[in-house]
Amino acid sequence: MSDVLAVVEHRRGSLRDVSFELVTAGADLVGDTGGDLHLAVIGGDVDAFAEALSLAGVDAIHTVAEGDEFNHDVYVQAVEALSEELDPTYVLMGNTVNGLDYAPAVAERLDLPLVTDAIGLQNDGGLVVTREMYASKVESTVEVDADRAAVTVRPGEWDAAEEPGEPTVEAFSFDLDESRVRSRVTGFEEAGSGDVDITDADVLVSVGRGIEEEENIELVQELADALGATLSSSRPIVDNGWLPKDRQVGQSGKVVTPKFYIAIGISGAVQHVAGMKGAENIVAINTDPDAPIFDIADYGIVGDLFEVVPELIEQFE
Ligand SMILES: Cc1cc2nc3c(=O)[nH]c(=O)nc-3n(C[C@H](O)[C@H](O)[C@H](O)COP(=O)(O)OP(=O)(O)OC[C@H]3O[C@@H](n4cnc5c(N)ncnc54)[C@H](O)[C@@H]3O)c2cc1C
Known about the structure:
This protein is an alpha/beta fold. The protein folds into 2 domains: 177 residues, HUPs (Rossmann fold); 119 residues, Rossmann fold, CATH 3.40.50. The protein has 9 helices and 17 strands. The protein has a 7-stranded parallel beta sheet with strand order 7-11-6-1-4-5-12, with helices on both faces. A 5-stranded parallel beta sheet has the order 14-13-15-16-17. It has a 3-stranded antiparallel beta sheet with strand order 8-9-10. Flavin-adenine dinucleotide (FAD) binds next to helix 6, helix 7, strand 16 and helix 9. The site of flavin-adenine dinucleotide (FAD) has 28 residues, from helix 6, helix 7, strand 16 and helix 9. InterPro entries: DHS-like_NAD/FAD-binding_dom (IPR029035), ETF_a/b_N (IPR014730), ETF_a/FixB (IPR001308), ETF_alpha_N (IPR033947), ETF_asu_C (IPR014731), Rossmann-like_a/b/a_fold (IPR014729). Belongs to the ETF alpha-subunit/FixB family. Pfam families: ETF, ETF_alpha. Keywords: FAD, Flavoprotein.
């Protein structure tokens, strides 16, 4: 029997998607052997977050009302204190900017091995973690040679938990050592233009290097407008300075899970796919019938975007 403590994430008053994915990952893990799934909700509007996280598979939610936003030192101390109280076999965190900030310190404090960037978890008499290597070209299996472990899970790999449940919700208090809280979030400044959050969009029209010239992006923007969609891109478009960084989808950009993702002139490199493979429906437009994007596309159009896109605009306008 293995208990799991999953630490959820929030930012600027909203729970991050990875929180709901952590519930699925944690529930699967305890489901392998029995045990309880505990959630740690640290900072922000903990009561509202606990209500939103009252989901099937969750046994208990522990709220820690300390601060409004993520804070490395508070998280490390809170997770350490909760772990000492609950004695979980596994501590799950997001493989996110926040998660990678505090997870190593948590593992060090609790003397746990840390496995990062998990895309699969199995508990078969011991923890087995699936990871990717060599820019996602190879999958590796890590057999954890320890009774307990800390793991960070990659966003977008597990389905977000949705089904309501009835976990217990308890406020958890501990003696926060203020002298060890060395920094506080004082404000936010968005990278790029900051006017759009592509992770919120239901429909993304995404443009890649096949667009050839900066001025041609207007054509894809017209399609996005006709569909009421948001414009995003592959990395070369951002590297060229044609769109701001906050439009980039992929491993070094954003992970998106829209209902429709329309990839135009995008080859489907692993680093791009890492950011969009969770889309419900993927449409690809590419001149190359062997482009890897077609391996994951639900609908594919082999054709020249400069012919296909104007035709689509006409259909949808
Ligand atoms: C550490 C690391 C991190 C990375 N992170 C990211 C990331 O976050 N996001 C990301 O996107 N990439 C990332 N990359 C880069 C990635 O490896 C690819 O280079 C990139 O995704 C390619 O972008 P693309 O598909 O737009 O361009 P290309 O690979 O050049 O593909 C262009 C495609 O357009 C098609 N095409 C050309 N002309 C037309 C036309 N007229 N009509 C239709 N189709 C046409 C071509 O057939 C081709 O398939 C990363 C790389 C590394 C090493």
